[in-house]
Write a structure and sequence with these properties.
The chain is an alpha+beta fold and 1324 residues long. 77% of the residues lie in helices and 8% in strands. The radius of gyration is 66 Å and the shape is flat.
Length: 1324
């Protein structure tokens, strides 16, 4: 029997599914279809095209999120919007299931398909997972990303996604994949076994191991380099400490010298400050002299420009100017006030004028509207008379050919009330007609419903009878076919009894063979013990031979070491004689050490000489650097000072002193020109003004008439027209010249500094040449001393090499002594362990061969017995297979007998239903003519009622329309009349006329005031112009008086400066002499400081080099790098060991797991096939897994399904029929489900009977029944069978005691799939 593994505690199962909007299922959520899955089996039955396979697709989509293939990325998976008549269709799948922890969960997936202009758009709306909190009982809903929930749901079900896709929820089109092409089959089995994932993991581990070995090599090499660098770094740190001490000593000497230099420098600065003050005073005197001359020239120009130079005092002039300014300001203020008043009057006049224009425009508009109002009243009077005559309404009274507006409005209201009454009457007539027609239509509708119900009942009975007739024929044929089933059942039982006897005899023979094999096995065991004892003795003889060989190798090694020791001694003596010139003493090591110490003393002495020479070179180098820096500084100062006036000199192409002389001359010339032109302009202005006032020539006093005066003033003004522009240009040129003079005077001291520094540069360059000569001499001496020291170091290295050679000789001698001791010990060991009294090795080997021949004979006998037993076992297996087939045949025949009885009862029931339907059809045909006659009568009454109602409504509607037209004409005029009266436009016209008269008087008064104000403003402006000339004359006198005072103050200041300079320059020569002596003393201190600075600089240079070398990238963090590399090396070595162990363990585990699974699957496949297949051409089938080694360390598995007949294996693909292919694929799926679905016992079979004949269908039903019965106790086992074969369902249902079946079919219109749960007895 099949052995099924299951766990009672596991409760993973699917409980129910709800579908809407998927393929042919209704997208309306209220019409959602669902299935509640049962245990152990759920049967779904329905005809082709009803939507059965959609259930499998929905289950797979809910669990994995994948849509079926060839659906246009999901678009064809949703109900088509064009069929639904909508622009978009929403679909939803909900699946309720339980996890392995008995937790109830609900997965929901919502989709939407939108119909665009040229394509359809598929999108996922929502994916949610709901669960019930076990503590609170509340439902908790969580939304996830699609990719996350697609991974989560298979984990919750306790099964992998490849098993869900390829085994559990498999589409009918993909059921035959176990017999697909090799590449597709390999991919599916690799996914199921997860081989690719673990193979990639192994490859990745091996890749990491390879990379790790490279790292170990790299770390080993780096460690050796870092170890050497660490030693060098320690030496550099020691050298840096010594150098820092020497620098500290030199710095202390320099600090004591700096104190002396600071004292002398303070004296130099004090003396230099006094000299700078004298020089600054001289520069200030020169600048002040130039200022005085410029002020005198300006004073002369201003004096020549004045017509009359006032003799009054400064105070009186200032008082006169202030008094005049006050008077002038009052006149200006009065003129401004008058001008503001005039502006206000003009503004008011303009506003009044705008108001008048606006009022006139409004008046004209109102008058025109009054005329229009009278015309409308006349027209309305005519219309009202016509309406009164036609509609019999009283006309208002008319007096003096005018109609009162109130009477018009009263007439309009009366007419409007009459129209409203006519409309109400029309609505009442319409309501009555509509009520009568609705009563008749209701009677017609009831009659039609009764008639349609009878017709539909007749059609339904006809359809049922049409279905029953072929069903009766089919039931009768099937009943006749099963007539021989009882006799065949008796024959099968007889054959089964015979096979059982044959099988018992075979089992007895198998027991006897097992006893003989056990006896032979005991004999073989005793011989094996003897063989092992002899092998131990042979191994002892081999150990003795190996010990002798080892002794010989030790002696050879001793002789080789002695020879090497002699050679090294000869080489050392020869080399020592060549270097020292004498023979080496017997104590090699001591003699070489003495020579090394001697060389070290000479090298230390030479090192001191080199250090002293290096210090002197550093001092000379420092002196050169200081001199070069001094030269650069002086040259930079010269360049900076020259840059201050270089552009100026380059622009004018003249030296600075010459440029100053020429600029001052030009300044004087421009000043005189500007003063002359201003004086001439003022003179001509005065002449013209005087001529106009006195009407005579200002020079000759000759009288002039108006024409002569006009010609003269016009001529003068034309001449003076360009004078202001010319004066402005001259003043601009004068300002530029003054700026140039000021700039050049300020740069004269800078020019003097440049001349002095150029002389200093020549002296410093001479000192630089002397320092360079000294430096070259000392550098040559340093090179000679360095060469001597290097020669001594080379000799020292030679002696060190000799020292290493002496050490190697000593080590070799020690090795020889140790080898002699080892040889002695080995000889003693051989004598003690392998003495006489033992057999030779060849006799021992001969006894071993004799025993081996006996063992081979026993093994041969065992193999013969096992071969005979295997042949007998095959016969017994064949008998067992026949027994199983006979048992299956007995079950099948028994089912056929039961089926024959059930068919008889079914035939009688269907025949009774057929007769009853024919009687009901006859009764319906008798009732139909009576109902048709009554329906015709109702329709005639409705037609007559509609004609009468239409005529009545038409008449009253004509009256309403005629009244409404006249009312609309009157209403249009009445509205305008009301608006005119409400606005009171007549009264507004009279008010505007009064305002216009008042505004006209106001405008005349304001115009008179404007004329008076303009005359007053003209007089004030004339006075202001006359006073302005006098004011400018007073201001010119005041400015001239101020310039004279400024010249006087500057001359007094100049005299004081000259007096200070005379007092300060009495000791001029002594100051400069003292300054030179102090500078010379400072120079001597600087030289002494430079000596120590040179030493410090040389040591600092050496220190920087050592530090640069130590802290550079070569020795940077060398200790840390060494320790880090050591740790990384140890870690990498440990990692390599762990990875090697893990790789071997994982590889062997994968192979063992794969082999065990394949073995388990093949056992299940073999048993299922033998119990299911009814043919004799195939004994059983199995899954073959061939190992393909692609590289030295990786392997691939190739899979194929083979069929076995008589011990011969053949590939099933391409050799089996369609039915065999379906059955083989189904068996493989069942085996995979059992092997891989321990936590989840769900399996869905979609149309499993496709291409199977009746016998194989019966066998499949029998096998599935056994599986169901075997696993009925497993709480998570669920088998879902989807089929259209009612016979197959009947066999499964009868055997398993199924209570309900889900039937899927299309609705009456054939648009949507519906799912109905029916009882098994009702369906079958």
């Amino acid at each position: 029997k099949l052995q099924f593994l299951y766990f009672i505690g596991m409760t993973t199962c699917i409980e129910q599914i709800a579908i809407s909007g998927i393929r042919s299922f209704n997208p309306d959520v209220s019409q959602r279809q669902g299935i509640r899955f049962q245990k152990p089996v759920t049967i779904i039955l329905g005809p082709n095209g009803s939507g059965k396979t959609t259930v499998i697709e929905a289950l797979r989509n809910a669990c994995t999120g994948e849509v079926p293939t060839n659906t246009g990325k999901g678009a064809a998976f949703i109900h088509d919007p064009k069929i639904a008549g909508e622009t978009e269709v929403k679909a939803q799948i909900k699946l309720q299931f339980r996890t392995a922890t008995d937790q109830q969960m609900l997965i929901g997936r919502s989709y939407q398909l939108t119909q665009l202009a040229n394509k359809q758009k598929f999108e996922t709306l929502d994916v949610s997972l709901q669960t019930r909190d076990p503590k609170t009982g509340k439902v908790v809903s969580q939304s996830y990303k699609c990719s996350d929930i697609d991974k989560l749901v298979p984990d919750l079900l306790g099964i992998s996604k490849p098993i869900l896709d390829n085994v559990i929820f498999l589409h009918q089109d993909d059921t035959n994949w176990p017999l697909a092409e090799a590449a597709k089959l390999k991919k599916k089995f690799d996914d199921i076994f997860s081989s690719t994932r673990y193979t990639k993991a192994l490859e990745e581990i091996r890749k990491v191991m390879k990379e790790n070995k490279e790292k170990i090599k790299e770390h080993t090499a780096n460690l050796a380099v870092f170890k050497e660098k660490r030693g060098v770094a320690h030496q550099l740190r020691s050298q840096i400490d010594d150098t820092q001490k020497r620098i500290q000593t030199a710095n202390e000497h320099m600090k004591s010298i700096d104190v002396k230099i600071d004292k002398v420098q303070a004296q130099i600065e004090a003396t230099g400050k006094q000299a700078d003050e004298i020089q600054q005073l001289e520069s200030d005197t020169i600048r002040l002299q130039g200022t005085v001359e410029a002020l005198v020239q300006q004073r002369e120009v201003m004096g020549r420009a004045l017509q009359v130079i006032s003799e009054e005092s400064d105070d009186k002039l200032q008082q006169a100017l202030e008094k005049f300014d006050k008077l002038f300001t009052e006149l200006r203020n009065a003129a401004a006030t008058c001008e503001g008043q005039l502006k206000g009057l003009h503004t008011d006049a303009k506003k009044d004028e705008e108001i008048v224009m606006k009022l006139k425009s409004e008046k004209e508009f109102l008058v025109a509207q009054g005329h229009e109002h009278q015309r409308k009243i006349q027209n309305l009077q005519y219309i009202m008379a016509e309406a009164s005559r036609v509609h019999s309404i009283a006309m208002p009274t008319v007096s003096e050919d005018k109609m009162d507006e109130r009477e018009i409005i009263r007439f309009f209201d009366t007419f409007k009330t009459k129209v409203e009454g006519l409309k109400s009457k029309r609505e009442a007539v319409r309501t009555e007609i509509r009520r009568t027609q609705e009563d008749i239509e209701k009677m017609i509708s009831e009659a039609r419903q009764k008639r349609d119900h009878l017709v539909a009942s007749q059609r339904a009975i006809d359809t049922q009878n049409e279905t029953s007739r072929p069903k009766l024929r089919d039931l009768k044929d099937r009943f006749n076919m099963l007539s021989a089933a009882e006799q065949e059942l008796e024959d099968a039982k007889k054959r089964h009894s015979e096979l059982e006897k044959e099988y018992v005899e075979g089992q007895k023979h198998d027991s006897e063979t097992s006893a003989n094999l056990n006896k032979l096995r005991d004999e073989h065991h005793e011989l094996q013990k003897s063989s092992d004892t002899l092998k131990l003795e042979a191994r002892s003889r081999r150990d003795e031979q190996e010990a002798a060989h080892k002794l010989k190798m030790l002696r050879d090694e001793k002789n080789k070491k002695k020879k090497e020791e002699g050679t090294m001694r000869t080489e050392l003596e020869t080399r020592f004689t060549q270097v020292v010139g004498r023979k080496i003493s017997a104590n090699y090591y001591e003699d070489v050490n003495q020579c090394i110490e001697s060389k070290k003393a000479l090298i230390a002495k030479s090192q001191k000489q080199v250090t002293q020479a290096d210090r002197e070179v550093a001092v000379a180098r420092q002196q050169i650097d200081q001199t070069v820096m001094q030269t650069k500084r002086l040259k930079q100062d010269v360049a900076n000072k020259e840059n201050q006036y270089s552009e100026l000199v380059k622009e004018y192409n003249k030296p600075l002193p010459e440029l100053l002389t020429k600029a001052e001359a030009k300044e004087e010339k421009d000043r005189k020109t500007v003063a002359t032109m201003k004086a001439l302009q003022m003179c001509h202005d005065n002449f013209t003004q005087q001529a106009e006032e006195e009407e005579c020539c200002p020079i000759c006093a000759r009288g002039m008439n108006e024409s002569e005066l006009s010609v003269m003033t016009k001529h003068v003004r034309q001449k003076l027209q360009d004078v202001p522009a010319t004066i402005a240009k001259k003043e601009e040129a004068l300002a530029k010249t003054q700026q140039l003079v000021k700039k050049v005077r300020g740069l004269l001291p800078v020019h003097g500094d440049v001349t002095r520094m150029q002389k200093e540069i020549c002296e410093v360059e001479k000192k630089l040449a002397e320092h360079n000569d000294t430096y070259d001499t000392q550098l040559e001496a340093l090179k000679d001393l360095t060469a001597k020291m290097e020669a001594l170091k080379f000799e020292e290295r030679e002696f060190h090499d000799m020292q290493k050679g002496a050490e190697k000789i000593k080590e070799t001698h020690v090795s020889v002594v140790k080898l002699v001791e080892a040889i002695t010990l080995e000889e003693e060991k051989i004598a003690a362990q392998y003495g006489g009294g033992v057999r030779p090795l060849d006799l021992v080997l001969k006894d071993i061969n004799n025993i081996q021949e006996k063992m081979d004979s026993i093994i041969k006998t065992q193999q013969e017995l096992m071969r005979n037993a295997e042949e007998k076992r095959k016969v017994n297996t064949n008998v067992l297979h026949q027994l199983q087939k006979q048992a299956s045949a007995m079950t099948s025949k028994s089912n056929q007998v039961e089926e024959r009885g059930r068919l008889k009862l079914e035939y009688e029931r269907v025949l009774e239903d057929y007769k009853k339907g024919n009687a009901e059809i006859a009764e319906i045909k008798a009732k139909l003519p009576v109902m048709e006659e009554q329906l015709g009568k109702y329709e005639s009454d409705l037609k007559r009622q509609r004609e009468a109602g239409d005529a009545s409504e038409k008449e009253i509607t004509q009256q309403v329309e005629q009244h409404q037209n006249d009312l609309s004409r009157i209403s249009a005029h009445v509205t305008d009349i009301k608006a005119y009266m409400e606005d009171k436009k007549g009264e507004r016209t009279e008010a505007i006329l009064g305002k216009l008269i008042k505004l006209d008087d106001s405008q005349k008064e304001k115009q008179h005031r404007i004329d008076v104000t303009e005359q007053k403003l003209s007089e004030l402006n004339k006075k202001v112009n006359q006073q302005d000339v006098t004011r400018r004359e007073l201001e010119a006198n005041v400015q001239y008086r101020e310039k004279c005072n400024e010249v006087k103050r500057s001359e007094q200041k100049l005299q004081k400066l000259k007096q200070i300079i005379r007092e300060r320059t009495k000791g001029h020569d002594g100051v400069w002499l003292s300054l030179d002596k102090l500078r010379e003393e400072k120079g001597s201190f600087d030289k002494e400081k430079a000596t120590f600075a040179g030493q410090a600089q040389a040591n600092e240079t050496l220190l920087r080099e050592k530090q640069k070398e130590l802290f550079g990238t070569k020795y940077d963090r060398i200790d840390e790098r060494y320790n880090s590399t050591l740790i990384r090396l140890a870690t990498a070595q440990l990692t390599d060991e762990d990875l090697a162990k893990y790789s071997v363990a994982l590889d062997s585990a994968l192979m063992r797991y794969h082999d065990e699974k394949i073995k388990e699957i093949n056992e299940i496949i073999k048993d299922l096939w033998m119990r299911t297949y009814r043919g004799q051409d195939i004994d059983y089938i199995e899954l073959r897994s061939d190992v393909e080694v692609s590289t030295a360390r990786s392997r691939n598995y190739n899979y194929r399904v083979v069929m076995v007949k008589g011990g011969t294996q053949l590939d099933m693909r391409g050799r089996c029929s369609a039915g065999q292919k379906v059955l083989a694929s189904l068996v493989v799926r069942l085996a995979l489900s059992q092997a891989f679905c321990c936590d989840c016992g769900i399996l869905a079979l979609d149309e499993p009977t496709t291409n199977l004949d009746v016998e194989n269908i019966d066998s499949l039903a029998y096998a599935l029944t056994e599986i169901i019965e075997t696993r009925r106790g497993q709480s998570n086992f669920q088998l879902i069978i989807i089929t259209h074969d009612e016979q197959f369902v009947r066999r499964i249902g009868n055997a398993c005691g199924t209570e309900t079946v889900y039937h899927i079919s299309k609705d009456i219109e054939g648009s949507y799939s519906t799912i109905v749960e029916r009882s098994f007895t009702e369906m079958m």
